[in-house]
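Tutorial, part two.
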Amino acid sequence: MASRSERLLALIQALRRHRQPVTARQLATELSVSVRTIYRDIETLVAQGASIAGEAGIGFVMRPGFTLPPLMFRDEEIEALMLGSRWVAQLPDAPLARAAADAVAKIMAVLPERLRHRVEDAGLFAVPRTAAALDRIDAGIVREAVREERKLRIAYLSEGDQETVRIIWPVAIAFFERVRVVVAWCELRQAFRHFRTDRITSAELTGER
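Running the prediction step on this input gives:
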């Protein structure tokens, strides 16, 4: 049986995973405890400063800003981090690949020696990719547009090499084996469209939300 401190940490992680309000019954099922225990543990966390809002019939949500001392990683969490970072490191998006390596370095810097060895020796590897289509632009500007909810003005090549200039509202980037695809609302077509990043020949932020 997990200790109370471990249970409280698990509850915090569960609340962080849910972006929408989650009921005590859902949390109890997820953590394999009673509903009564969930209510008691939430009272404890609130008393310790956690900003948890709750409403009968809707559920609980933890507002951003609550911090804890550094947490130790379970073996599966370390393996997931290493596998994910090795996959991202193979992307042709160089800034994102460097960020993956930097993130692992920051994590290793605060881990105890025993866990650092686990990171270095994690026996999980991403299979080398087939030749990926190379982007014509720095994809960082697309990620920035998604984060900041800004419109982009792009020049885009169709499969027949016809270039059009479009204003798009990017909402996501999908990473496939060989290509990256921007999901966006296209003002020209007045519909959602998918744009391969290797066919975007130029891109600039318009400054418009």
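The mean pLDDT is 85. In part three we will examine how such features are distributed along the chain.
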